[in-house]
Amino acid sequence: MIAELIKRRIAGLHQNTSTGSIDITDTWEPLEEGLLP
């Protein structure tokens, strides 16, 4: 909201916005024998 007001008051001012995501794979080793990872 504030960025929109400032962009209107200052000529030539621009705003770059980007979004993204990342894939995370969580792996673990069991602490006790006989458990499946």
Structure in words:
22% of the residues lie in helices and 0% in strands. It contains one helix and no strands. 0% of the residues are buried. Belongs to the histone-like Alba family. InterPro entries: Alba-like_dom_sf, Alba-like_NAB. GO terms for molecular function: RNA binding.
Notable characteristics:
37 residues, mainly alpha, 1 helix, 0% strand, rod-shaped, Alba-like_NAB, Alba-like_dom_sf, DNA/RNA-binding protein Alba-like domain-containing protein
Topology:
Elements: H1 2-9
Summarize the structure.
The protein contains one helix and no strands. With 37 residues, it is mostly helical. Belongs to the histone-like Alba family.
User: So how many helices?
Assistant: 1
What is the distance, rounded to the nearest whole angstrom, between the alpha carbons of the first and last residues?
48 Å
What is the typical, i.e. mean, pLDDT?
A: 86
Biggest sheet details: none
What is the helix/strand order? H
Shape: rod-shaped
Radius of gyration: 24 Å
The total beta strand count reads: 0
Task: Kindly estimate the percentage of residues that lie in beta strands according to DSSP.
Answer: under 5%
- Helix fraction, binned, reads 10-25%
Low-confidence spans = none
Class based on secondary structure composition and strand pairing: mainly alpha
Family: Belongs to the histone-like Alba family.
GO molecular function, one term: RNA binding
Protein name: DNA/RNA-binding protein Alba-like domain-containing protein
Organism: Gossypium trilobum
